[in-house]
Amino acid sequence: MPTVQVTDLKDGDFLLDVREDDEWQAGHAGGALHIPLSEFVARYGELTEAAPQDGRVHVICRSGARSAQVTMYLVQQGVDAVNVDGGMQHWQGAGRPVITDDGKPGFVL
User: Fold this and answer.
1) Which one, of 21, 99, 92, 86, lies nearest residue 60 by Cα?
2) Which of 28, 32, 49, 58 lies 20 to 30 Å (CA to CA) from residue 84?
3) Taking 90 as the threshold, does the pLDDT of residue 54 lie above it?
4) Of these residues, 61, 68, 81, 108, which one is catalytic?
5) Full-prediction pTM beyond 0.90?
6) Is 61 assigned a catalytic role?
7) Order of strands, sheet of 33-34, starting from the edge strand that comes earlier in the sequence
8) In degrees to the nearest 10, what's the CA dihedral of 44, 84, 95, 92?
9) Average pLDDT of the chain?
């Protein structure tokens, strides 16, 4: 399974958040695309439209388990995808900003 650490991510890297709506609303990484795991297959087209053509998709969830499932699916589809190890818990722990939809400070649910 292709995996990266939160500390490996650079500003501008494409981030796909697969947590559920309540988790997203509590707090998320700015600029991330949100497609919950429970809706992922039905909304797959949104990812293909938004993701960079020749770029990497960094998949994140709360701890790394759900994002690992999505990463494996994407790799099977031929997408350059990697799982973000430790998910949003490590993101927050590394001091990266967690915000709400209105840009205020959020938290990892």
Assistant:
1) 86
2) 49
3) no
4) 61
5) yes
6) yes
7) 3-4, 81-84, 57-60, 14-17, 33-34
8) 70
9) 96
